[in-house]
């Protein structure tokens, strides 16, 4: 990049200055850089690439590696007065370089430990998720193009609502479910039952990763995340998060395969919504987003039919992937 910016991975000491440059729900990740050095843990490893003008922080790209060492880009930000100078593209380029080095090393350590150091270290993926037709979409697309990300594939539809959704007639139509079913707050469920769901041994059975109740567990909203029980066993859930102080995200609604079609999903969702819009929570968090995955056409139909009229905005979220072959320098590790 031409210009006066310095682009580099941040140290823990520098990271605090960059807090305002990402979403509130990701800021805590900037406090975790200290354990990252040469991290052999790999999982939940944070990547923070900063841009400086002299000593002034002017841009941040934040990303997170999951347990399988694939990386999600969480946010890209360039300070307003410096936009259009190639800063975001340069940060992404640096992220790819840094990821290649760090993931390569972690993978190398894994292979050495497992005694399979001679094997092909394989590849990993960097994923960017963003909404189409947003004011930033065009810029994000060009930035991803610059690093050779694959074309976008559809992921989910996002419905954005405000307090008007309190007027939905369905809210007063679906209340109790009858025995043996019961809807209770997720936080009141026996932890042993939740563990059975986590290990796949519960009555909920298998569920797609995107509907897991175990993502972002530290930010699950306790006030209106609900569990559906059958004779005390978890068979469904409506899990919400609070990504911003004024917004509740309805992240996953799931009912077990053997009880679909019994009309249980709507009372479950309505109980979550009532606890949001009919309580004090509606004042603190008047906004709501509903995330409906393309892998779940029944839910998309249901939410479209019942929520679209009360949605201020409906956008399509897509993902783009960059697959990177790992060139491990195994000889250095042996
Ligand atoms: C999106 C954002 C990060 C771009 O930062 P930037 O430093 O201005 O981007 P760059 O200068 O590296 O531009 C990269 C490409 O995007 C294009 N671009 C930048 N801003 C654009 C805009 N508003 N509309 C269309 N294209 C744009 C540039 O022309 C360039 O394309 P090119 O390489 O084909 O010439 C910046 O606008 C920003 O911080 N916005 C607020 C936060 C945000 O919305 N982040 C994205 C979601 S997390």
Automatic annotation (TrEMBL):
InterPro entries: Acyl_CoA_acyltransferase. It comes from the Bacteria. Gene3D superfamilies: 3.40.630.30. This is N-acetyltransferase domain-containing protein. It comes from Candidatus Wallbacteria bacterium HGW-Wallbacteria-1.
